[in-house]
Amino acid sequence: MIPIATPQLNQEEIDAVTEVLRSGMIAQGPGVEEFERAFAEYTGSEYAVAVNSGTAALQTALLAHGIGKGDEVITSPFTFIATGNSVLYTGAKPVFADIETETYNIDPADIQEKISPKTRALLPVHLYGHPAEMKAIRELAEDHDLTLIEDACQAHGASYFGKKVGAFGSGTFSFYPTKNMTTGEGGMLTTGDREVAERAKMIRAHGSKQRYLHEMVGYNLRMTDIAAAIGLVQLKKLDGFNTARQKNAGILSEGLKAVDGVRLPVIRNGCTHVFHQYTIRAEKRDELAAFLREREIGTGIHYPIPIHTQPLYRELGYGDSHPEAEKAAEEVLSLPVHPGVSEADLEQIIAAIKDFYK
Ligand SMILES: *Cc1c(COP(=O)(O)O)cnc(C)c1O
Known about the structure:
There is one protein chain. By secondary structure, the chain is of the alpha/beta class. It folds into two domains: 11-233, Aspartate Aminotransferase, domain 2 (3-Layer(aba) Sandwich), CATH 3.40.640; 239-357, Aspartate Aminotransferase, domain 1 (Alpha-Beta Complex), CATH 3.90.1150. It contains twelve helices and 13 strands. Strands 1-9-8-5-4-2-3 form a seven-stranded mixed beta sheet, sandwiched between helices. It starts with 10 loop residues before the first helix and ends with a helix. The relative contact order is 0.17.
């Protein structure tokens, strides 16, 4: 089976973890600080705060920006559930704006429609590793005095007109094993705002700066030095991983461009796409997925149910419709593109898809 995702780990990560275990300092310590400095530098953000998941990074970012009850946060309905739920955690209300047909990212025109006097923040997602339309989104944030938080959980290293994602507002990253780099579980908040960084550090550690002195409600969202050791090695390899993903995506697009029934992913002008997923729109999507499975090719649907139509959100009273997101949910199919996919695998995937539509 060619898997849809697989973490790229070798002796270097094993050695780094072993060293931490031997040191006896295994929870949050100097390794986490080193990882934060390296990640801040990589993204071009002034500060980075490590936490124990991408979800925790989102929650921490929203709370550190003071978002809570009575506030509305505009985001995409076509993303992993964590994007919407992190807003719910704060007591604020996620308000969904529909997506663009081509990039699957939130549509700035629809954001504009959804801005109300209660809107406090915009939370675009750089879905599949392709940056959202940050020029228009940043202008909307500036014009309406809104906080900008990026869900960059799928876009480590992606850039928009030369600037890395996560550096436009406050950024949030995930290091889950399927992502472009991993720490097992883990997350990172990036920001240029010193106060947000300070508050985030308190939120992840029970609201305290000084041990046993608690100034606010916080949580235990800390990353371990074990995870940070993996992250430091993975970060060094990230550009290489992304180059491999881009090369694989190029081969897939070249091989599939003439296939009727398939719409290929696009790369917008000025954008670097890091292909967390290589996602096509496919006619007879479910049959194609079953056909590929029979040919030992793993695929994924990201995502089959838009957030606003999830049972939880229906119960919360969301009855709105976002036709582009709903259509995408029926048509998208992600193909293996990660650095572990070989050229022979790619040929096999291309041949199988051609066979299916023949
Ligand atoms: C993975 C992901 C998250 C959540 O990250 P976890 O580390 O799994 O908590 C949030 N948003 C998006 C878009 C993601 O892909």
